């Protein structure tokens, strides 16, 4: 799979704040790329740089292997953008607004009218005389995505598209993104990691101005696998006693005890059950826990930022389907199963 967008060694500073520091990132063509990072990590800044709405201090952006600014822009993808808070001319109807947006993008006549109808239907908005003024946040978000899709872009960039939506609106939006898979490449930033787990096939975690981990979800899970057993006890008192009996890295929270382990799951389960039985403690439930993107995120962002030279030396690009991780995870505080 080749990369539609590549960022090489991008640096960006606002005043005294170094927001991006030799950021290198690759977005495979046809992927849904979940772009995550703490508040202020620089996700919007990165997306605005890709859009050409912001100037970088150093580095290169490549589209289809051609540098942005190339005098032959035919290799550049068309880009649709859904900002975090889309704004509209409220006195217009959605159709009037989309017609204006299409005309500004050079679309005309019946083709434009047809496309307006298609995108309104796609996002589930009415094509009647209702004004945008009366729209809910969710309806405005839908109109924003309709506008972003109007020109049938090859690259769609969405900045925190689901943050203002209720669960049902979020559900619809994610289903829409998933339905666009393979028709276009999508970058979307979010703090809702379960949304990323649901639709993204690639994930990049931005921290300290650099991409600290990048890969498919499966690759990240494998790299950051933090196997553990959850022991459910009857109450918090029993959980505290169980944690003491299990010792080592076991931690209690409420009625649950978390037991990280290294080695075979079955052997770890057996050791946990034996230790509990020896202490005359009966668990309500025992279950193996899989690594979530939340676990991975917390693991990645807790590590100090690597030196920029090590980032530069680690080639994230050229292996779009490969996995790269710049922060290491050591499972030192875990039960070691022989
Ligand atoms: N035009 C600007 N002028 C000055 N500082 C800016 C500007 N744009 C962004 N910043 C600063 O750059 C940093 C990164 O901001 P950015 O919006 O890119 O982060 P983000 O990861 O998108 O954050 P969030 O998740 O909170 O939306 C922040 O400290 C922000 O205040």
UniProtKB/TrEMBL annotation:
PROSITE patterns: ABC_TRANSPORTER_2. This is ATP-binding cassette domain-containing protein. CDD domains: ABC_DR_subfamily_A (cd03230). Pfam families: ABC_tran. The lineage of its organism: Bacteria, Bacillati, Bacillota, Bacilli, Lactobacillales. Coiled coil: none annotated. GO terms for molecular function: ATP binding. Keywords: ATP-binding, Nucleotide-binding, Transport. It comes from the Bacteria. Residues 5-233 form the ABC transporter domain. Belongs to the ABC transporter superfamily.
């Amino acid at each position: 799979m080749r990369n539609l967008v590549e960022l090489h060694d991008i640096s960006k500073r606002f005043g005294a704040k170094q927001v991006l520091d030799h950021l290198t990132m690759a977005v495979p063509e046809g992927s849904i790329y979940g772009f995550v990072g703490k508040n202020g990590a620089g996700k919007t800044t990165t997306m605005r740089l890709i859009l050409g709405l912001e100037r970088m201090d150093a580095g290169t952006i490549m589209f289809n292997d051609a540098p942005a600014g190339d005098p032959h822009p035919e290799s550049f993808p068309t880009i649709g953008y859904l900002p975090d808070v889309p704004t509209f001319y409220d006195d217009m109807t959605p159709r009037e607004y989309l017609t204006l947006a299409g005309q500004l993008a050079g679309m005309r006549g019946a083709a434009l009218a047809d496309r307006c109808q298609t995108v309104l239907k796609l996002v589930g908005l009415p094509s009647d005389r209702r004004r945008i003024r009366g729209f809910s946040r969710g309806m405005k978000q839908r109109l924003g995505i309709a506008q972003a899709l109007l020109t049938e872009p090859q690259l769609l960039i969405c900045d925190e598209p689901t943050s203002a939506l209720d669960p049902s609106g979020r559900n619809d939006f994610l289903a829409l993104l998933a339905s666009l898979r393979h028709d276009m490449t999508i970058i979307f930033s979010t703090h809702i990691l379960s949304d990323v787990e649901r639709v993204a096939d690639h994930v990049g975690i931005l921290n300290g101005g650099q991409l600290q981990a990048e890969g498919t979800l499966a690759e990240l899970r494998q790299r950051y696998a933090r196997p553990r057993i959850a022991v459910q006890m009857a109450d918090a008192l029993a959980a505290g006693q169980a944690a003491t009996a299990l010792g080592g890295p076991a931690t209690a929270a409420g009625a649950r005890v978390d037991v990280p382990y290294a080695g075979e799951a079955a052997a770890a389960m057996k050791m946990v059950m034996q230790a509990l039985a020896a202490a005359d403690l009966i668990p309500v439930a025992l279950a193996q826990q899989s690594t979530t993107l939340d676990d991975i995120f917390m693991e990645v962002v807790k590590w100090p930022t690597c030196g920029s030279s090590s980032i530069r030396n680690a080639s994230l690009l050229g292996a779009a389907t490969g996995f790269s991780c710049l922060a290491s995870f050591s499972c030192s505080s875990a039960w070691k199963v022989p």
